[in-house]
């Protein structure tokens, strides 16, 4: 089968590699233009570009597909199908109509739940216990096309957006190979729009922790925003990133004298207040329960354990976070 492939990040690169390994004829790879990255802001190729170059596949990096030139370039490839995975550019109808069998999208959720840009993070934030991969026939809407297959993936209590991304990338790579092996005999199933939810793009500001929230909610937020944009709070007006935490039902739920002392403080301290900062334990009051901070990163510094942070920055009980 002659395939046009469109994708940009590592999630898409996994699918490209799987399709190539399966022996498909990938006639052209589309990916976004190189972007500045790193401290030096050096132009850096996408993960898909790097994967395509490693295999000697032809590349096309338009800034937009809405120009007259783009459809003409793709039409010349005489493709049977176009596979799209986290490409990042809108496909106009003129492009959707080009391949004989249309365009297939690898989406990282069980549609119609979590249509949109950040399905992995939104699933963790919402406390979902399951997500997955949907192979869908693309239309002009936002992840609204008919579904061809779905693969369920459990969300573990320890999953971050990074670890769940890797699991879903592997699942998506397997799913598209299976789908193409059975395509176009697969029977499309329409989505139920009444069950749709929207996975809005993440912002740095929303990753700022609101200590009035329950500890369990904040622990999910830390996992969902890892690695980007990174959960954070303020300490003495300076940002502090928080990479790993554990929610506790209350400071007194842990059976030792230190936490019994913290439990008494919890009853009188406002959310965001340090309950305990001793040795390797940094516990902060929340709207309900408390959050044990396990790995943090000061502004301009490296990620470190709570013990290493407290060794260089003692925090007496009552210290407020968030301001």
UniProtKB/TrEMBL annotation:
Formyl transferase C-terminal domain segment(s): 201-313
Gene3D superfamilies, per database record: Formyl transferase, C-terminal domain, Formyl transferase, N-terminal domain
Binding of (6S)-5,6,7,8-tetrahydrofolate, residues: 109-112
Domain Formyl transferase N-terminal: 1-179
Keywords: Protein biosynthesis, Transferase
UniProt cross-references to InterPro entries, sorted A to Z: Fmt (IPR005794), Formyl_trans_C (IPR005793), Formyl_trans_C_sf (IPR037022), Formyl_transf_N (IPR002376), Formyl_transf_N_sf (IPR036477), Formyl_transferase-like_C_sf (IPR011034), GART_AS (IPR001555), Met-tRNA-FMT_C (IPR044135)
GO MF term list: methionyl-tRNA formyltransferase activity
EC numbers: 2.1.2.9
Enzyme type, top EC level: transferase
GO CC field: cytosol
Catalysis: reaction(s): L-methionyl-tRNA(fMet) + (6R)-10-formyltetrahydrofolate = N-formyl-L-methionyl-tRNA(fMet) + (6S)-5,6,7,8-tetrahydrofolate + H(+)
Membership in a protein family: Belongs to the Fmt family.
General function of this protein: Attaches a formyl group to the free amino group of methionyl-tRNA(fMet). The formyl group appears to play a dual role in the initiator identity of N-formylmethionyl-tRNA by promoting its recognition by IF2 and preventing the misappropriation of this tRNA by the elongation apparatus.
NCBIfam families: fmt
UniProt-recorded name of the protein: Methionyl-tRNA formyltransferase
């Amino acid at each position: 089968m002659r395939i046009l492939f469109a994708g940009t990040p590592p999630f898409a690169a996994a699918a490209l590699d799987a399709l190539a390994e399966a022996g498909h004829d990938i006639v052209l790879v589309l990916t976004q233009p190189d972007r500045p990255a790193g401290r030096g802001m050096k132009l850096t190729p996408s993960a898909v570009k790097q994967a395509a170059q490693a295999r000697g596949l032809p590349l096309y990096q338009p800034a937009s597909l809405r120009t007259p030139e783009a459809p003409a370039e793709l039409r010349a490839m005489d493709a049977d199908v176009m596979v799209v995975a986290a490409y990042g550019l809108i496909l106009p109808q003129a492009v959707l109509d080009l391949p004989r069998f249309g365009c297939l999208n690898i989406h990282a959720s069980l549609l119609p739940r979590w249509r949109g840009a950040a399905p992995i993070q939104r699933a963790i934030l919402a406390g979902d216990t399951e997500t997955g991969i949907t192979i869908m026939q693309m239309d002009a809407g936002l992840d609204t096309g008919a579904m061809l297959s779905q693969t369920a993936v459990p969300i573990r209590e320890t999953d971050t957006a990074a670890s769940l991304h890797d699991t879903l990338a592997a699942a998506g790579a397997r799913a598209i190979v299976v789908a193409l092996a059975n395509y176009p005999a697969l029977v499309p199933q329409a989505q139920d729009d009444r069950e749709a939810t929207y996975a809005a793009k993440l912002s740095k500001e929303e990753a700022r922790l609101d200590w009035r929230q329950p500890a369990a909610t904040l622990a999910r937020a830390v996992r969902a925003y890892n690695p980007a944009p990174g959960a954070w709070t303020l300490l003495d007006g300076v940002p502090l990133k928080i990479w790993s935490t554990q929610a506790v039902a209350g400071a007194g739920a842990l059976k030792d004298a230190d936490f019994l002392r913290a439990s008494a403080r919890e009853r009188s301290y406002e959310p965001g207040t340090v309950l305990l900062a001793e040795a390797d334990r940094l516990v902060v009051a929340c709207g309900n329960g408390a959050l044990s901070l396990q790995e943090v990163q000061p502004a301009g510094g490296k990620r470190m354990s709570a013990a290493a942070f407290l060794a260089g920055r003692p925090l007496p009980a009552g210290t407020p976070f968030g301001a």
